[in-house]
Design brief:
Shape: flat
Radius of gyration: 28 Å
Order of helices and strands: EEHEHHHHHHHHHHHH
Number of domains: 4
Membrane topology: Multi-pass membrane protein
Mean pLDDT: 85
Largest sheet: 3 strands, antiparallel
CATH topology of the largest domain: Receptor-associated Protein
Low-confidence stretches: 1-6
Family: Belongs to the GSP F family.
Number of strands: 3
Protein name: Type II secretion system F family protein
CATH class of the largest domain: Mainly Alpha
Pfam family, one: T2SSF
GO biological process, one term: protein secretion by the type II secretion system
Helix content: 55-70%
CATH architecture of the largest domain: Up-down Bundle
Length: 337
């Protein structure tokens, strides 16, 4: 029975080649008939094609991460550089993929390419995993006939971005850990330790100093209203995140404030500059014109303040200004860059 256009299934097949040797394997397709046709095109006479049963647990697989896309890009670039055809490369990568979701996506891309779509058109159907920058670079590489070189540049770019993310996480881990420990210790003191001292102080029969009274009152408030405070804090954080996604002015305000936070601000600033430089270098390597490259690079900075600055740079360059002068006018880029 044929599946719908978008559904893709995994089939277990067995067959014989021209020498009569029995072969077995797995292949993704939309129906048994199509899988048999693909096997015959490869010189294999299918004797059995059955839909692979789904496992009871973990069949859906984990979500596809940016690291998965970086690995996929590197594998595809390596195979194309080695002279392996594009469709065959997808089949090899899919067979080696351990994540069912990634495997399914690669198989769908392979089928689209086999059906006559360009690689850029095929991956553009998955904007969550392949952003506009990725699609534009692939499209430029296909047009210029240097897809293998462009994919190699994309792979190096993705690997650099993942490396930058790792360094940012390491840099932010210590201050965040210190803050978390301070909050936990303070909560333990207010909830468990201060009440013990309160009983001792009450036995003195004298008036307590104002500061001591304030600490005891704070302890009582945390013990009685602590859960409400926690719920309010979580709600406030969720509200800020939602408002940032929907309100561009508020997002600009938050991102600008975050750049001024001690310790964290400089890390975020260097991250935005590193992403800007790396992305722009990758687009240049792919032969993308400067004005078009700046339009694509803006969204890769990870900070709306720098994103708007890059848009301003693009507008200045489009009317004839030098890139160095346009960057200088924003006041966000260091002279060395």
């Amino acid at each position: 029975m044929a599946t719908t256009k978008e559904e893709l299934l995994t089939f277990q097949w067995a067959g014989k080649d021209k020498r009569g040797k029995t072969l077995k394997g797995e292949r993704s397709g939309r129906s048994e008939i199509l899988v048999k046709a693909e096997l015959r095109q490869q010189g294999i006479t299918p004797t059995s094609v059955k839909k692979k049963p789904r496992p009871l647990f973990g069949g859906a697989g984990r979500r596809i991460t940016p690291a998965d896309i970086a690995t996929f890009s590197r594998q595809l670039a390596t195979m194309l550089t080695s002279g392996i055809p594009l469709v065959q490369s997808f089949g090899i990568i899919s067979a080696a993929a351990e994540n069912p979701r990634l495997k399914s996506m690669i198989d769908k891309i392979r089928i689209d390419v086999e059906s006559g779509a360009t690689l850029a058109e095929a991956i553009a159907k998955y904007p969550v995993y392949f952003d506009q920058l990725y699609v534009s670079l692939v499209e430029a590489g296909e047009s210029a006939g240097v897809l293998d070189q462009v994919l190699d540049s994309i792979a190096r770019y993705k690997e650099r971005i993942e490396s930058i993310k790792g360094k940012i996480k390491k840099a932010l881990f210590y201050p965040m850990a210190v803050i978390a420990v301070a909050v936990i210790v303070t909560a333990v003191l207010l909830i468990f330790v201060i009440p013990q001292f309160e009983d001792i102080f009450q036995g003195f029969g004298a008036d307590l100093p104002a500061f001591t009274r304030m600490v005891i009152d704070l302890s009582e408030f945390v013990r009685s209203q602590g859960w409400l405070m926690l719920i309010a804090f979580i709600g406030a954080v969720a509200g800020l995140i939602a408002l940032k996604k929907r309100n561009k002015k508020f997002a600009h305000f938050l991102d600008r404030i975050s750049l001024k936070i001690p310790v964290i601000g400089p890390v975020l600033e260097k991250s935005a500059l590193a992403r800007f430089s790396s992305t722009l270098a990758t687009t240049f390597a792919a032969g993308v014109p400067l004005v078009d490259a700046l339009k694509t690079v803006a969204g890769a900075t990870g900070n709306i303040v720098y994103e708007e600055a890059v848009h301003q740079i693009r507008d200045d360059v489009a009317v004839g200004h030098q890139l160095q002068l346009a960057m200088q006018q924003t006041g966000l880029f260091p002279p060395m860059l």
